[in-house]
Design brief:
The chain has about 650 residues and is of the alpha/beta class. It has a 9-stranded mixed β-sheet, with helices on both faces. A 7-stranded mixed β-sheet has the order 3-4-2-1-5-6-7, with helices on both faces. Strands 14-17 form a two-stranded parallel sheet.
Amino acid sequence: MAYKIRILPRWLVFLLDLILVCCCLFLSRMLKLNFNMPQVDAGLRLMLAVVLVFNAVLFYLFKSYGGIIRYTNLEDAQRLVMVNAIASFFYMVVNNFVPIFHFGNFFTLQIVTINFLITTFVIISYRLAVRYVFNFYKALSQVDKILKKKVVVFDASADGQHIKKVMNSLPNGDMEVVAFLDDSTNASGKLLEGIPIYTTQENNIAKLGGDGVELLIMASKHIEAGKLNDLVDNCLKYGIRIQQVPAMKEWLNGKLDPQQLQDINIEDLLEREIIKIHNESIYTELKGKKILVTGAAGSIGSELVRQLVQYRPSLIILCDKAETPMHEFQLEMQDKYKNTNVKAYLGDIADRHRMEHLFEVYNPQIVFHAAAYKHVPLMEDNPSIAVLNNVLGTKNLAELSVANDVEKFVMVSTDKAVNPTNVMGASKRIAEIFTQSYYRHITRNMAKGDDHKHITKFVTTRFGNVLGSNGSVLPRFKKQLERGGPITVTHPEITRYFMTIPEACLLVIEAGVMGNGGEIFIFDMGKPVKIADLARKVIKLAGKEPDVDIKIVYTGLRPGEKLYEELLTTSENALPTYHEKIMIANVHQYDFDLVEKRIDKLIKCARQHYTLETVYLMKELVPEYVSNNLAYDKVNVKQ
């Protein structure tokens, strides 16, 4: 049967404290007067009356009776010591300045000192005794033994100690912190608040798992990505689930509820160092500028805007054709960035007239082009739409940027543009080819005396999959997990490069400042990740067992899908930049006149929505495009 102990009424604690204070004073007087009862009894009633009245006032003012006794802590003890010290000072004042007490020497220094020590000891000790008895009774409860879950807290600092106190003191909590984990070897083998501290070595985690530990709570996020990965892998290996404490501002009414513990984010487990940019020229170049961001309501575009805000541009134009996402993002910007000048502009980048209106009204100085159709299966079925959005849209923006003297045009591309096997990748590669050849074309014209004020610098960034973006595999995995599975993976060997959305956008902004025109920047993305391994880790982090609780089903490669992504074509070499993680692809150069003719022909065909003819013309523009879609195998280009 579950234990149930009622909390003592405050008035009862108040009376008990007063009784103990009087008893302690009586004992102090007896000790000072060597148990001479006639002397002890002389004037005792008057003394007790003064003690009762004054201590009652002090207890009321300091609310020393307000705490729950069985949860007495250091703060409660400090409050009681303070009350007793003030009372002792009052006794000395009364003894020296009130005649009736002064001549009787009722509150001598010896009596007050003895009384202070005895009263402090008794009042604190009885509270600690109640706490000990309560905890002992809880430990004996059979139900409590069954329900208690053994927990380990990572971080033996003040944060970890606080989480341990919170978890162990919850009235109806089903968790018991039995150890600390810390990546510092200095604390290893020591005890903290009566429980041991272990390092994060695998043998220690194996021991804890063997002892029945079920959960590791991350009280601190100050741990390197590599060490965090090893810790998570070892915990999952020995059946220990990992959860983290939310930010303190998210605690309910300032208190932590076990229901608020969160599964650790897979984004935190990237097996590489997070790129960091320290380029002061970014602020100099972007401050006070009018910046256009296309695809601003998407995952990449919206994060770009959030990061651009900190560089204090004079205006950010949000361009997207998705009404509802744009409306929601506009509300977010109004709530979070009230002092930033942001304008929402609904428009399709493939609509030349609408884009002309945008440039005419706002006259942007820098363009970040993130708008694109990127879902591979959808673009395989709709190649003409991929061309109209990804190629025509880019062409419109590039030409209007040059016509309106835009300083820089930064385009977001993809690793799927490298040796493309699908329509989406091929359309992005064609967009890259156009902007690069167009830049070389206007550069030559400028050298011949073109009347443009300056040359628009075209820069391209090329990177892999972005965790959490629209179309990313992780949101799909999480939705499938919530439904109870199965989780679907196309192939057991399929791999992808991954980066986080903030990293991707940081790279794009850095490229906008670093680029001098015509470059394709690529990012050292570390090791590629097997999607099947990623799926297993997502399942384990949710406290489930892969292929037992949640099935993993392999559905086969989709039309146009690669097993492995690349960041460079076989004909490209990477050149270093001032940042070790960012390189420049030395790509093949194209003649603009020929490219322009072929792209115009491609766009004309796409507007008629001729599927096979559109794919044929794409292959003509991108010879390395070898489709993995059986429907397009018969579309061959004569070399």
